[in-house]
Amino acid sequence: MGSSHYVYTLLIRCADRRKSYPNPIPEQGRGSNGGIDEDAWAEEFDHRVKKAIAEHDVESLSAPDRWGRSLLAEAHPTLEHYAPILCCLGSTDERDRVSYPYEGMEFGAISMRMALFEPVDT
Q: pTM here?
């Protein structure tokens, strides 16, 4: 199982919260998961990661800057939360089945996606 934060940036969220602290986030700003509405860039990066995982596309996952430097910079100012998926995917076989036992976005900018790799019976 590969569990990591494929989109992980609290820098933007902390800055947003500081503007309104100590007031809570208004209800109209809450997303379907109870968090802040998802940002388009977070959804895009998470979608690209999910697609690359499903296709066992290690080349794309290992060079996410090709999706756009600004997209990568927003999704991951640093890579310690992103890098574990490379280890997980690198230890799989292209025939392994991929599923996502948990998917969701917290605070609009933190992907909680888990990828489960299972061998296909031969």
A: 0.71
Using an 8 Å Cβ cutoff, are 8 and 91 in contact? no
Q: Compute the distance between CA of residue 58 and CA of residue 49 in angstroms, rounded to an integer.
A: 10
Provide the residue range defining the domain that includes 29: 2-118
Distances (CA, A) of 44 to 9, 29, 96: 14, 20, 25
Radius of gyration of the chain (CA): 16
The CATH number for 112's domain is: 3.40.830.10
Read off the pLDDT of residues 27-36 as tens digits, 9 standing for 90 and up: 433 344 444 4
Number of domains within the chain: 1
Which residues are registered as beta bridge partners of 8? 110
Residues 94, 25: Cα–Cα separation, whole Å: 43
